[in-house]
Each structure stands twice: as structure tokens, then as C-alpha cells.
Amino acid sequence: MTQMLRIGRGAAVAAEAGRIRTWLLAVAALLLAAGLGVLALAHSSFDGRAHRSQERAIDWVAGGRKANLMAQPVTDMVGTTSFQVVWLVPLRADAPLPPGLDRWPEPGEAVLSPALAEAGAAERIGDRYGKSAGRIGAEGLQAPAELLAYARPGGDADDLGAEFRARGFGGANASPFGEDANLPPPEHFYGALAGLVLLPVVLLVTVAARVGAVARDRRSRLLAVLGAGTRARACFAVGEAAVPVLVGTFLAALALAPALVTEVPLPIVDFRLHRPDASAALPGLLGALLAAPGALLAVVVLLQPRADGVQRSGARPTVRRGRLYRLGGIAFAPGLLVTVRGTELMPDDMKLPFYVLGTALVFATLPAAVGMLCGGLGARLAGLGRRVGSSGSLIAGRRLAAHPQATVRLVASLALAIGLAAQAQLWGGVYGENAARALTTLDRIGSSVLTVDYPHSTRRLAAFEQSLPDGVESAVLRVATDDDSVESAARLIGSCDALKALRTPCKSTPVSIPGGAPDSRLQELLSWSTYDTASVQAQKGKTAGWRTTDEVSVTLVLVNAAGQHHDLPLGQLKQLAYRHLGPEANVTSVGGFHLGAVGGLEAATRWIRLLASTGMFVVVLAAGLGAMAEFVRYGRELAPLGVLTGRQAVYRTTALWSLLLPALLAVGVGTLTAIWLATPIQIDRPTVVSLASLAPTTLAALCGAIVLTVWGARASVRSARDWRPTAD
Hints:
The strands form three sheets. This protein has a seven-stranded mixed β-sheet with strand order 1-7-2-3-6-4-5. It is 56% helix and 12% strand. A hairpin with a 2-residue loop joins strand 2 and strand 3. It is α+β, with helices and mostly antiparallel strands.
């Protein structure tokens, strides 16, 4: 067996497209090992985050148990990213500290995570919750880049409700808090990693294993005829591939090693991998580095032509691999139908896993379906070439019909590239309806008007309004809803300065505003508060004394008197609200409650772009190197014919039908498939994936198809010029 390994190693150097296959196997091993290693790191990271989250979770007091502290988590925002602020009041001198703090903040002090202090510097977040008293330690954060703040009210424990009494932190029944809402759940991440990265890597592995397959298959059959058994031929195949596979695995180990010694920042997603989490993943990393070369070598062996032995009649060994391609092509259409319709029928918690698995199956079988289609067209193309006397069409048609596997390898990268681009667009652009509407509102009026939710206290409201900077006016929007009608009566109440800032009349009695709201800021306020923006009144009056009830909603409004194109100092106003209105105060832009979802969607979008970019890189690599190897074989096959005929036109015609036709079919079918696959995700949402949105990707793929065709024709001409008869 050692001798077969050595012979296989020597054969790899002189084989058809041997150098290309060596590079492909090394890169495939690198990416497969790195992909499995990333999977192990992700699993360890999620476990570490869950552990740290549970360690700091709030252990609420139930029944008559004695409380040691009071803790109230609230949500705040930096830009469009929401995060948690935990207001703390110790009730005992020995009250347990939350992880990450070395002392209790004094009244009016706050401790921020390093990432929050950096992200909110432009909004003066350092003083928003009180005087800064240091930073939260890494052991108290789910991840180094987490946004989190602990703050202590400047007043007393009465600032927090009695329902926020707690015994301490941690425990099986404690309630976790943190940034989990801004990150995809583990199962979503694993699905995206599998579909956007590992599936292209599997494509690359398959392409690498089958580069130069015709010559190697012929050699494998020759070995079988000479008496080599299955084990001997497997050792020969392993000897061919072992060195580049081991080199690629070693490079993957070098690429993963920095995560064990430092916190590695990831591009695009603004995320740093916590070093202790990476260290805990060491067994998984070792498993990945062992599994990747084993799996790749197993693929190399299994994709050899299976020979049942040399029959006594001397017939050639049978090759059954074509059945797999036919099975994949047949499974494409049912898989597409089941994925699209089945996703709509699945329970909510099963929709995404079912959709991800179905999408992976569809794009895995799409190349085989295109290969079957080209095989069927090949026979008709050969007949057409025979009737019209076109040798190029005749050759291309017979080649398509006889070698559908070659077509599959050629078009797989194009089809998968379109699928990855469509999925990246789909998940990167699908916002919830309210979140998308809130972004539109923010683009239209900015922060020139803000809303304030607060505990209803006349004394505190007066202090807050007295502290407002010059040019900031306050009013109350009171909306009374009739249960028997979808219409609402809205009344804007405030000082004349506030009413005039919104371009409404100022009278002591309610005055209807003709034609609804004349100011775009008031229009947006009303659109988020009432169904009927035409039923609006304005009245001069005090903002104090109004309360929200079951029949009436009351919102405090802050307006910039300078106009709608001048933003209010959001950070300063939040600071004043927390100081005077208490920890429950919430100052946001109009519709800002729904902007919190935007931060989570943007975070998920960044992860999808990172994974999709990685997958696209792998696909382009597989397409380029795979096409190079295909052209080497393509040129050698046609070279004798060109030498005999003395005409180069046959190369162009054959390339047109053998390369361009399958590529065009792959682009067309891939685009339509991607659009249909987006249907269940785009139900009741704005359309993100369409023919227009995929036009740039489709045009790029068509240009790539043309380049492949020209490249193939030139490679054939060059091979014909250099071709000499050999005993192969």
C-alpha cells in the first residue's frame, strides 16, 4: 500500500491539469478546515455568551423573600441600535455586585461597557445616566463589543418600583438581559453559515476532487484491469491528493491559531471573538482539523469510478456515478416546490430551518438539472448539426449528451453565485413593516421632534420642562379613540411657541386644523398616533395634568422651534429626562420604538453580508480554477480534430454551444429560481428580490459566461497548435 501511495504522489505531478488540481485541493482543504473550525468557534462562543448571560441574570425576589437590591432593566438606543441599561440600588451594604463591577456606583453614577462608551461618544453618552465611574469588566459582558450600562439613580430607591426587588445575580431561575435581541439566534447563524459558506465549500471540494477526471478515470480503470483492488486504487487516489490536502489543513490551523492568543476582530460585523471562548473551543478545532482532511480524502476516493471488477468477458468496469447526477436533476423541481410552499405551511418556529435546508437542497440540485436539460438539448443539437453540416454543432451536441457531468461542474458556480447574491439581498433588505416605516420617518424629519414617555408626575415634568435648552418647546399630543370607529380625534396642546413651531393656530379653545397637519413633523406624529390625520385640533394650554387611559393616549412632544431641518440635541435631552423624570423616562424620535428592531436587523444583515461575501469568494475561486481545468481538457479533446480539419472555426462554434449555452441556461434558471425562493420570505413585506434587483448580478454572470466561452475557444486554439500525438 505504501508503494501505491508513492506511485499516486508521482502521478499527481504529471497528470492532466495536475498543477491546477494541486492548488484546488490545497485551497479546498484550507477552506473546509477553516469553515468547520469557525463552526466550532461559533458553538463555543454561543455557549460562553449564554454562560456569562446567566451569571449576571437578575434573581428576582418572589413572595416574602428578603431583597438585597433593586434592579430595573430598561432599553435605550445609540443611533438605531438598542441596548440595555440596568438601574441599580443596593438595599444592604453587603449586596452582591453584578459581574464586571468592583464596587457599587454612587448615587448619580454610571458604569458603561467600553464598546458603549465608544459607540455613544457622539451622543455624549458618558454623562447620560450620571457621572462616569469606570468601565464594565470583560467577565460581565456577553461579548467584548456588547453595549451595556449599569447606573444608579440620583434619588433614592423609590425611583424604582417595588416589583424590581432582587436577591442578587445568577441562578437557575434568574432572568437574563443583554444584547441577544441584536444578534441572530444560534440556529439562525448555523443555518446561514451552512448555506452561505459551507455549501460553496462543498462545491469547491467537489470541483477539486474531479479536476482532470477523464484522464484519472481512465487510469483508474486501467489499474482495475491490471488487477488492482479497491483498496489499492483508494491508496493510489489518496497518494495523489494527500500532500496538498495536508498543506491546506496546516494553513487552516495557522489561520485559526490567532483566536487562541488574542481577541480577533471580524470585519463588517463589528464583532470580536472572546479569547476564553476560543480557548474553550480547542477540542472542536482539533476535531475540525482532523475531520476536514479525512472528509476531503474520502470524497476523492468515493468520486472515483466504481469498478465491479474485470468481467470474464473483458468488458469495461461499470461507472454508476451518472445516477447521482440524474437523481439530483430529478429532485430539483420537487425540492423547489416543497421549499416554497412548505415554508408557508410550517409552524413559525420551523419556518426558517425548513427554508434554509430547502434552499440548500434546491441550489445543490440546480446544476444537475441544468446538466440534464443540456443533455437533452445535446441530442437535438447534434441532429441539427448533422442536417445543416455544422461540425461544431455536431461535436458540441454529442459532447453535451455524452458528458453531462462536465456541464454540471461548469455551471454549478454560476448558479450558486446567483443564489448567494439573491439570499444576501433578501435577508439584508427585509425589514419589518414598522421598522422600515420608522426609518422612512427618521429620514424625513430626523430628530427635529422627539417623543417622551415618563411616569406621570406634575412636579417632575415641571422640573424637566424648566431644564430644557433654549429653542426646545414642549407640547402634548392627546389622542382619543372611539372604540366603535377606526377614526381618532387628535388634539395638540401646548404653549404658543410650541404650536407656532408646528405651524398650528394658538387659541385657548380647540381649533380644527384645515386639511390636517401643515407641518411634516406633525404629520409624522399623527401618522404614528391616529388613523385619521385629518381630524386634528390645536389648543393653547399646559402640558401637565394629562394622563394616558384606556380611551386616551397622551404623548409628550419636544419640538425644535428652529424648524424641521434642525435636529434636537438627543443626547442632552435624554440626560435631562433621566435626571428629572427618573429611570423609566424614554426619549425617542418619532416611531423610535420600532427603530430598536432596525439595530438587530442591521446586525443580522452585516453577518449575512460577511458570510455571503465569503461564500461568493469561494464560488468565484471554484469557478475560475475549475474552468481552467475544464479548458485544458476541452482543448486537448478538440485539438486532434482541429489539426485534421485545418480550420479554427470549429473551436468557436463548439465553444459557443458547449460553454455559452449551459452558462446561459444556468443564469436564467438560477435567476428565476432565486426569485421564486424569495417568495415565502417576502410575503407581507416589501419586495426585495426581483428581476430588477438581481439585474446587476445577472449581467455579471452573463459577462462571466461570455468570458468563459472566449477563454475556452482560445484555449482550444492554443492546445491545437501545441498538440502532438502521444500514447495516452
